[in-house]
Amino acid sequence: MSPSGPGSAVLLLAALAALLGVCSAGSDAPRGVALGFVFDPKATCDPPCEHAGICIRNNTCFCSRGYEGETCKYANCFPKCKNGGVCLRPGKCRCAPGYGGRYCHKVTCEGGCWNGGECSAVNGVAKCICPSSWTGSKCQEAICPQGCRNGGICVAPGICSCPEGWLGGACHTAVCTQSCLNGGKCISPDKCRCRPPFSGPRCEERKKSH
């Protein structure tokens, strides 16, 4: 003989009370429902309760753990999603750009920070804070305090990559494949500046005096 009538309603109420006792133990207990509420087994909810919520009185839902709202429609993240994040489902946040982590509590820079840079929120915007010898949005550009002259490129802190014909820390020293003679000075690739009375490509010619 299957249970029916008032006895079955009492059993259902007892089972539900036990369930509520378990579910209300944590900090995520549904709001606005006390343990001593009246449960109506004939209650109807329109719209219906979502996400396994239980209709306890007409148009009153008791939500399962992790959901809230009149029809248990909204997911509840605990702790709450931070920095503008949106709770997609219990314990899962969708984070705003520039933030990451389970609850959007970590600042993240797209593409990461290179060369020892650290991602930090500056006026609400995620930015890479670079060491003193690097710059750029990802700390990808080296700094050469001395500068790189004559078309040189800074490739590492204080180190220039020089075009052919130039040497030195700042690409400031010209290279002449054949040395300048008679006190002449190499002033650009393969070009000598001569001291009087000498001339010629290598300052090898002495001007004749009349």
From TrEMBL:
One of its GO terms (molecular function) is signaling receptor binding. Residues 41-73, 105-140, 172-204 form the EGF-like domain. Gene3D superfamilies: Laminin. Keywords: Disulfide bond, EGF-like domain, Signal. The gene is seraf. SMART domains: EGF (SM00181). It comes from the Eukaryota. Disulfide bonds join 45-55, 63-72, 109-119, 130-139, 176-186, 194-203. One of its GO terms (cellular component) is cell surface. Residues 1-25 form the signal peptide. The keyword Disulfide bond applies. This is von Willebrand factor D and EGF domain-containing protein-like. InterPro entries: Dev_Signal_Modulators, EGF. The keyword Disulfide bond applies.
